[in-house]
Specification:
By secondary structure, the chain is of the alpha/beta class. It contains six helices and five strands; from the N terminus they run βαβααβαβααβ.
Length: 157
């Protein structure tokens, strides 16, 4: 009997993470896999907004919006998992996205981590970093990065 695999898939509401989820389902899913979808809300965006320093009502509204978006995301992926008859759960983590995703994968004893890639160029990735780059360089387990749109300089067939 094969060992049960735990697959952690990072989701953030983007088309890139949705592609990664669909790519897993269409190409890698095996009966018996346990799926953990991890989402890391970006509360850091709220804390970095300069207008927040003077108006606590703005902070409350932004947190409420972020929580609403997270709830919609959890509902969407819970429904997708149910539709595809996948077994697992959705988990929310807090912190810097790369670190929080890896923490979740370690906690869940991931067999594989799957992420979508936004396809940032070299300059942007160098200056602001990339969650997928961070995970690739710091993970102690296999990582699959799915990119579905070609870079502008890639040749189209």
């Amino acid at each position: 009997m094969a060992n049960k695999r735990t697959i952690v898939i990072a989701v953030d509401g983007s088309e890139h993470s949705e592609f990664a989820f669909d790519f897993y389902v269409d190409n890698f899913h095996c009966h018996g896999d346990h799926i953990v979808l991890v989402h890391v809300p970006e509360y850091s965006n709220i804390l970095s907004a300069s207008s927040l320093l003077t108006d606590p009502n703005i902070i409350a509204e932004m947190i409420k919006d972020t929580e609403g978006q997270t709830s919609e995301l959890v509902d969407k992926y819970s429904f997708k998992m149910q539709q595809k008859e996948l077994h697992g759960h959705v988990k929310q983590q807090c912190g810097k996205p790369g670190e929080a995703i890896l923490e979740c994968a370690r906690e869940e004893s991931a067999t594989l981590l799957i992420l979508g890639a936004r396809g940032m160029g070299v300059m942007r990735r160098t200056f602001i970093g990339s969650v997928s780059d961070y995970c690739l360089h710091h993970a102690t387990f296999p990582v699959l990065v799915c990119r579905h749109k070609p870079f502008k300089h890639d040749k189209q067939s």
